[in-house]
Automatic annotation (TrEMBL):
Region of interest (Disordered), residue spans: 134-157
Record carries keyword Heme: yes
Positions contributing to heme binding: 48
Molecular-function GO terms, alphabetical: heme binding; metal ion binding; oxygen binding
Residues annotated as signal peptide: none
Organism field: Fluviicola taffensis (strain DSM 16823 / NCIMB 13979 / RW262)
Taxonomic classification: Bacteria, Pseudomonadati, Bacteroidota, Flavobacteriia, Flavobacteriales
Keyword set, alphabetical order: Heme, Iron, Metal-binding, Transport
InterPro entries per the UniProt record, alphabetical: Globin-like_sf, Globin/Proto, Hemoglobin_trunc
Protein name per its UniProtKB record: Globin
One matching Pfam family: Bac_globin
């Protein structure tokens, strides 16, 4: 494959990410373990998380510009939340279930990159949630996620 798309381009567009997280948080709010954690989430939460992940996946500055966000600001949302490994696992499980239900690209290459990011991001969220102060400088750049070892999407040729 000559022109390798970004993860964002391969997944679709911003509506793909908004749909994924809208359906996901519907499940989260009905979940016995996670509903308590998210019961006070802001009305913008779904859009902010969709924008954040879309930006990390190479879609442009959705979170940075539209939400005046930064990696540090996002990390700050998890400080002191005391998230457990059990809650993290449920979060991951529901997100992957939603990904299948909405028909998110399911080629092995894309899912490998997607799961890699989700593992990284959720494990960091748990670690940061045990802290009382945000360790991250406000000027730290947003993370960028790519295809990793697979090098690009599934290509039958
Ligand atoms: C890749 C993993 C994750 C990403 C990209 C992410 C992203 C975000 C973002 C962007 C916000 C800010 C939302 C806003 O500005 O309104 C946020 C807030 C939050 N996140 Fe995460 N998060 C991740 C993992 C988790 C996990 C695993 C949990 C819990 C099990 C969690 C719990 C929360 C909570 C409780 C808030 C605050 C919600 C509120 O009250 O408005 N996050 N997250």
């Amino acid at each position: 494959m000559k022109n390798i798309p970004t993860l964002y381009e391969w997944a679709g567009d911003i509506k793909t990410f908004e749909n994924l997280f809208a359906q996901f948080y519907d499940k989260v709010l009905k979940d016995d373990l996670l509903s308590e954690v998210f019961k006070n989430m802001s009305p913008e939460h779904v859009k902010h998380v969709a924008n954040f992940v879309a930006e990390v996946f190479g879609g442009g500055q959705f979170y940075t510009l539209e939400n005046n966000g930064s990696h540090s600001k996002m990390i700050g949302q998890h400080i002191g939340k005391m998230l457990s490994e059990e809650k993290r696992q449920r979060w991951v499980h529901l997100l992957l279930q939603t990904a299948d239900e909405i028909g998110l690209k399911s080629d092995p290459e894309f899912r490998s990159a997607f799961v890699g990011y989700i593992e990284w991001g959720t494990r960091l969220a748990v670690i940061n949630s045990q802290l009382t102060e945000n360790p991250m400088d406000t000027n730290e750049p947003m993370p960028k996620w790519g295809w990793g070892e697979t090098g690009g999407p599934y290509d039958p040729d």
